[in-house]
From TrEMBL:
Keywords: Cytoplasm, Hydrolase, Protease, Signal, Thiol protease, Ubl conjugation pathway. Residues 1-21 form the signal peptide. GO terms for cellular component: cytosol; nucleus. The keyword Membrane does not apply. Its EC number is 3.4.19.12. It is found in: Cytoplasm. Its main location: cytoplasm. This is Ubiquitin thioesterase OTU. It comes from Quercus rubra. One of its GO terms (molecular function) is cysteine-type deubiquitinase activity. Pfam families: OTU. Hydrolase that can remove conjugated ubiquitin from proteins and may therefore play an important regulatory role at the level of protein turnover by preventing degradation.
Length: 185
């Protein structure tokens, strides 16, 4: 039985594929299998939701409900902001703008997270985090960033970056599964 979120994502993918089918024949449609991404909502918390969801998968725990996922994401966000403060001397130079303003804004649930937050999340959780993205030329997932390697390299939390500000949790290992991005001609 598909969850409501999974069903909505499946409908969205069908609509996108249908619309892409009207492109000229020299173009191709992309069919993305739901075997990898979990359909994390794009509500400003997607990075944090993806990381906490990935942490549950990594630990063999069941996927959290959407309300629990939101709660865990907000808790992780607060800990990440605190970690920035603890590591101020190491992080202040690579954050945009005023450090204090950045941290205050990052505590807000609607503010998007990015690479600095992934780095701090790896420290908070003391766990490696791997970010992957679809490689359009090969049609495969490609690791684009790794954080927290000092905590080991085995069994990282896996996150999928869509390239337009959205993160999703990956439920499959990249190197052990065939890519599910297929090209239809």
């Amino acid at each position: 039985m598909l969850s409501l979120l999974g069903y909505d994502l499946a409908l969205w993918l069908l609509k996108v594929n249908f619309l892409l089918s009207f492109l000229p024949s020299e173009k191709f449609n992309l069919v993305i299998s739901m075997d990898y991404g979990l359909g994390i909502p794009g509500d400003g918390r997607c990075l944090f939701r993806s990381v906490v969801h990935g942490a549950c998968l990594r630990e063999g725990k069941p996927s959290p409900s959407e309300s629990r996922q939101k709660e865990l994401a907000d808790e992780l966000r607060a800990k990440v902001a605190d970690e920035f403060i603890r590591r101020r001397a190491d992080t202040e130079w690579f954050l945009e703008g005023d450090f204090d303003t950045y941290v205050i804004q990052m505590r807000q649930p609607h503010i998007w997270g990015g690479e600095p937050e992934l780095l701090m999340a790896s420290h908070v959780l003391q766990t490696p985090i791997t970010v992957s993205m679809w490689d359009k030329s090969s049609g495969n997932l490609k690791i684009i960033a790794e954080y927290g390697q000092e905590y080991g390299k085995e069994n990282p939390i896996r996150v999928l970056y869509h390239g337009y500000g959205h993160y999703d949790a990956l439920k499959s290992a990249i190197n052990s599964a065939e890519s599910k991005l297929h090209k239809k001609r």
